[in-house]
Amino acid sequence: EPSADDGEALRTPQQAADAAAAAQPPPPRRMLRFWARNSGQFYVRSTSATLRMMRTLARRMASEQVWDQSAYSQEGLWPALGLKGRVGSRVSLRVLSYACFCNTKWFFRHLLNEPTWRHHRPVSVHTNYHPEKQQRMQAIFNHYHVAEGKGDWAALRRWSGTEGSRRACGGGGGGGFRGGREQLLPDEMVELSSRGPWLFHNLPPRTPAQLLAAPDAAGRAGAFAAVRFLPGGGVAVGSVEEEPRALAAAPAGVRARGGAPLVHGGSWSVEGQALRLRLGEEDYTAFRRGRALICARCSDGVEVFARYEGLACNTSGWHRLRPSEAQSGVATTVAGAKAWRWQGRHDFTFHADGRLDTPWHKGVWGVAPERGERFIFARFANIDHLLHVADKSRIESTRCEDGDKVTVSRW
Predict the structure, then answer these.
(1) Cβ distance 43 to 100 under 8 Å?
(2) Mode of pairing for the β-strands spanning 383-391 and 375-380
């Protein structure tokens, strides 16, 4: 039946849903690189400019609550600014070869997984990235100094590129993931995939043994693929070009490379908090953290990362609370004179007529019937949030744009 909502022209619910879906533009590119000069190891020449910079750093360390690494980057990169009386450092900055002066992120994620680097000996390795600093440092020292570079390569490769040790998939996980895991719900994975793909950033096209046999550039280039999880355990794998939202988020180099993905088809299942995934001929185990999947290849523990590039909410049926819905159970729970507190700090008030008062902008709220009777939505500052009303004093909010979650409590 045609319906009118808040003065809009008459149209069928399906036409309204199609219009809302078409109005959602692809997201802006979020794969940006932010960097800083890490002062873990550096060489400084004796010049008047470097002397002035070091004196400035010493003064700031003694008088400010600032991290030394942040101050080092700031003084090396900040321009002169007359309004603050700041004189530019006037130093020339150069970067040493990351393969010769590397940190443990590059060492354990790249050097150990590339057969052509097997006989490479770095000048130094800054053990700064992983929590098991002492153990990893000891393993590196034993390999290059105690065994003079002829140590057990497997002893180094037992360490994961993320946290902890690599593990076989049958032994509780393919990588040493600890903390930050979210429960994986099969129905939610299917529902999310119906609105957008998971963009896998660096699927290894070949195993280490295959790379060693044919160490060409094409074999080393990680594959990008847009993956959707289907009902019944199936997987749809497409190219980035086939998915507008994934294409908008992909780096320029990936868009320029183009072409079909290097993996085809697969299957998936959920076991506890772990996702068992098969892509092409390789098995992976994965855990979810917000909009990200952190995967490890079962054959060798190589890490693979994916990001959800769809919409976290289906907003097509959302509308401001109507008088006929004001007496529903969830509406009477959240509306009223007592305010709610966003993240325990910011006051929110849900009015019975669908108005929403926030510290930032006026907004609207209403029920989200497609998710069940305990769900509502809140829209303010042109941003949608899906809210799960857990009980009379607690609401769990998910921001539709990026999946960010916060708690709203009553006071």
Answers:
(1) no
(2) antiparallel
Task: Annotate 204-231 with DSSP letters as a single string.
Answer: -SS-HHHHHHS--HHHHSPEEEEEEEPG
Give the pLDDT of residue 171: 45
Question: Could you tell me the strand order of the sheet in which 274-279 lies?
Answer: 235-238, 223-229, 198-203, 303-308, 292-297, 282-289, 274-279, 266-271
Picking from 154, 37, 54, 163, the residue whose alpha carbon sits closest to that of residue 98 is 37
CA distances from residue 185 to 191, 287, 288, 370 in whole angstroms, order as listed: 10, 12, 10, 17
- 177 by Cβ neighbours in 10 Å (0-12 / 13-18 / 19+) ranks as buried
Rounded distance between C-alpha atoms, residue 338 and residue 408, angstroms:
13
Contact 97, 192 (CB under 8 A): no
User: What does pTM read for this prediction?
Assistant: 0.57
What backbone torsions phi and psi does residue 291 show, to the nearest 5 degrees? -90, 10
Residue 169 DSSP symbol: G
Tally of CA atoms within 13 A in the half-sphere of 206 that contains its CB: 16
DSSP one-letter string for 55-107: HHHHHHHHHS---HHHHHHHHHHPPPBGGGTBPP---------TTTEEEHHHH
Tens of pLDDT, residue by residue over 251-309, are 665 555 555 555 667 899 988 778 899 887 788 888 887 788 888 888 767 778 888 88
CA 221 remoteness from chain centre: 21
35: confidence class by pLDDT, cuts 50, 70, 90:
low
Q: Which two tokens stand for residue 71?
A: 């101050």
Return d(Cα 198, Cα 203) in angstroms, integer: 12
Distance CA 139, CA 156 (A): 6
- Whether 116 and 213 have beta carbons less than 8 Å apart is answered as no
d(CA 341, CA 408): 6
pLDDT recorded at residue 72: 87
Q: What's the start-to-end Cα distance of the chain, in Å? A: 42
